[in-house]
# Entry
Amino acid sequence: MNTEEIRKDFPILSETVNHRPLIYLDNGATTQMPRQVMECWTSHYCHQNANVHRGIHYLSEQSTLAHEAARQTTAEFIGCDDSRQIIFTSGATDSLNLLASGYAFPRLGPGKKVVVTEFEHHSNYVPWQQAAKRAGGTFTVIPVEGDVLDLERLKKELDEQTVILSVTAISNVTGTILPLQQIISMAHAKGIPVCVDAAQAMRHGGMNVKELDCEFLAFSGHKMLGPSGTGVLYGKKEYLKEIQPVRFGGGMVDIVDLKDTTFGEVPYCLEAGTPNYAGDIALAEAMQYMNKIGLEEIAAWEKELTDELEETLRGMEGVTVIGGKQPKNSVVSVSVDGVHPYDLASVLDKFGIAARSGNHCAQPVLRKLGYESLLRFSPAFYNTREEIHILAQAMEKSVAMLRKWC
Ligand SMILES: Cc1ncc(COP(=O)(O)O)c(C=O)c1O
# Structure
């Protein structure tokens, strides 16, 4: 991985923060954007901008073609044959809400249940919980011990009453890579559809929906070098048809009259209103950018960096690395004896280091692990070994300083 060359594509990586070169280790929250993606977005507004699906004029057609090409690129990126299986949303949260309200809610009712795991980000937890609550159904959460999902319990809970299982591909707290193939096979053995929350997984080698055989896949653009406010919901054709539109407006209808409305076809009936077409086009450019570097190369380098980071942190006195029994990628969370994560993140910021502190929008798993807050480092393929070494020195200094003060 030629990180030196790659970094030239990311203008923000040359910034200084608090008079130090920026070391950006908060990629789990959002990744940085390469120049090519920004230029693609700007170019669309400079040369092709018009609303999609609305007009017959030249620009509208150009804009529509570019948007549909982005849908095709997205489909290819996740190994899907038909671009009509790609719904553009505003992010993973939006995709999961659409599914919870449009697919699960109408099927849930007394006796029926939706199953998630304790690992889940609030975005793959609260929408299902609330859908079950509104419908009078049951919300079942499979427990986690350390960083290990209780697969026996999962097997027991998956039954004829289960409407859907929704599970993350990678935990945003522990970095744990879940055994998705095994989980999906378990659900399919009982005829239960599976939604995969791939928000943390897309930039580590991507996801192939054919190999996974999941019914739905949700992810965000801004966690894979794309713009914020973009995202995707993929679905198998027969399942997408079953989603009831939950947002209504222009672009998604067939016939509207006083008494009722009929809806257009998938994907358009699930994309009410003007889509974020320039963002979606830029997201497709981000996918092409990653393809050019090589998905396997990206995944391999991120794994190397994560392993080095984890080993470095484990070697520090009073530092507990969360998890470690299961394989992980690109997320290392720690707790440091006698030091609050918020204070540590604030002091690291003075060294120009961007790290995340807090509950990481995953209160249930933090509570289970026995923490209110953790400090999280999440490297990406444009990070370097040298940055990890600087982080290690900054951690030593910051922890010593905070222990002295507190
Ligand atoms: C595992 C996981 N799922 C879902 C989300 C929600 O993503 P977004 O806020 O982009 O919708 C996140 C964001 O951190 C995440 O890590």
Observations:
- The chain has a mean pLDDT of 96.
